[in-house]
Amino acid sequence: MSEEIKITGSNQRMDRAQAVPAIVGNHRDFLVVTGLAGTAQDMYAIEPDADNCFLLGGAMGASVSMGLGLALAQPDRQVLVMCGDGELLMNVGALATVMASGLTNLSILCVDNERYGETGNQITHTSMGTDLAVTAKGLGIRNVMTVTAPDEIEAGRKELRRTDGPTFVYLKISDAKPPKMSSRNFDAADRRIAFRRAQLGHL
Amino acid sequence: MSDQSVWGAELYDTLVDGGVSIFAYVPDGGHKVMIQKSLEDDRVHSIPLTTEEEGVALTAGADLGGKKAVLLMQSSGTGNCINMLSLQANGRFPFLAIITMRGTFGEQNPWQVPMGKAVRPCLEAIGVHVLEVERPEELKETTNAAMNLAFRSNCAVALLLTQKFIGAKAF
Fold first, then answer.
1. Nearest CA-CA partner of A64 in A153, A157, A139
2. Is the predicted pLDDT of residue A97 greater than 60, yes or no?
3. Domains defined along chain B, listed by start
4. Which Gene3D superfamilies does the protein's record reference (chain B) (predicted)?
5. Which of A95, B107, B135, B149 has the most neighbouring CB atoms within 10 Å?
6. Cβ(A41)–Cβ(A199) under 8 Å?
7. Hey, is the C-beta of B43 within 8 angstroms of any chain A C-beta?
8. Is B18 exposed, middle or buried (CB count within 10 Å of its CB: 0-12, 13-18, 19+)?
9. Which residues in chain A touch residue B66, judged by CB atoms under 8 angstroms apart?
10. Strands (E), chain A
11. Which domain does A136 fall in, by range?
């Protein structure tokens, strides 16, 4: 599977629509929180309205902190946060808070296309020299891996499943704008209730 | 003005008795007792934040996982939270912030005044219910009212500990 991932874009990196599902693998291994826009669409494409996933549609910068709260509340589950580079840059201090929490059941997949895809594909700081893996390491995240090539996807998939976290996997992907997705469910109250019903057994 | 070692302990116990098990905080002199008690209590998580808005998202995540979390912060952090409170407005997540006030009654630092004055209108504009404590005898009842509104009625709630209650910082 990994060998088939295309290399595209002006930055000559992996195709998003192939690389993200490949590195996530079976999303049912996790409770998932995604950022707004790109990573929400990535997860929606994997499974629309999955009841183990909460997809942001706004509140930019919330995903890592929300995943942290979920991981604190559910210490026996592995929590996966999927966030874009722009989303993480807006609240990068949240990684320091993850470190300070001392929890081990949180993995963060940062999907870096070096672009603000939702607002016109403007470049982000990661296209100008910012390395968010170095940032994560510097802020104290225990396990950090950068994945830039198809033959590294499998190792990244395993890394996300480490139980001695926190873990940060930095997936460098193509800056090509992905095709417009069909509209998804933006009703956060509906998705909260669905998530809690499925995971907690009550409202 | 009330003695923090007394009201801080009463407020902390009221929250824990109400089922709160996660305390997310930005360091603050007014919350010193509460923060210390949460750090020393094995029954709860005590999480230091780098900015208040992290706490808005963290408490929503805790709710997804079935736990009750509160955000301890000072009034100056209110502005940092506003867009993040879209989460509570759209998702009907419970939210409870305990906010120590600056910039109002008896303030001596002018830098605290603009945000202090803006706390209530900002919070109300984004849909947060605002409750205030001015006297020690109001603390427990108002805290329980705030918890009911947040955790049973799925509202976003801010409990303001006013400067009449906590006192104005001396310079």
1. A139
2. yes
3. 4-166 (3.40.50.970)
4. 3.40.50.970
5. A95
6. no
7. no
8. middle
9. 73-74, 196, 199-200
10. 7-8, 13-14, 31-34, 53-55, 79-84, 106-112, 115-116, 122-123, 143-147, 167-172
11. 2-200
Q: Are A78 and A107 in contact (CB under 8 A)?
A: yes
Three-state SS for A188?
helix
CA-wise closest residue to A111 among A102, A124, A128 = A124
**Residue B99: its H or E element:** strand B95-100
Q: What is the CA A64 to chain-centroid distance, rounded?
A: 9
Query: Residue A113's domain is classified under what CATH number?
Result: 3.40.50.970
ipTM over 0.90: yes
Mean pLDDT of A110-120: 92
What was the pLDDT predicted at A3?
54
What angle, 0 to 180 degrees and rounded to 10, lies between the N-to-C axes of helices A94-101 and B52-64? Answer: 60
pLDDT digits (tens, 9 = 90+) for B75-132: 999 999 999 999 999 999 999 999 999 999 999 999 999 999 999 999 999 999 999 9
Task: Give contacts of B92 with chain A, Cβ < 8 Å.
Answer: 188-189, 192
By the 8 A CB rule, do A115 and A173 touch?
A: no
Tell me whether strands A143-147 and A167-172 are parallel, antiparallel or unpaired: parallel
**CB pair distance less than 8 Å for A192 and B83:** no
Q: What percent of chain A has pLDDT over 90?
A: 89
| Domains identified in chain A, total number | 1
* Residue at token pair 């006297």: B135
Longest dimension (CA), chain B: 43
Nearest one of A61, A59, A101 to A81, comparing CA atoms: A61
Phi and psi at residue A196, in whole multiples of 5°? -65, -40
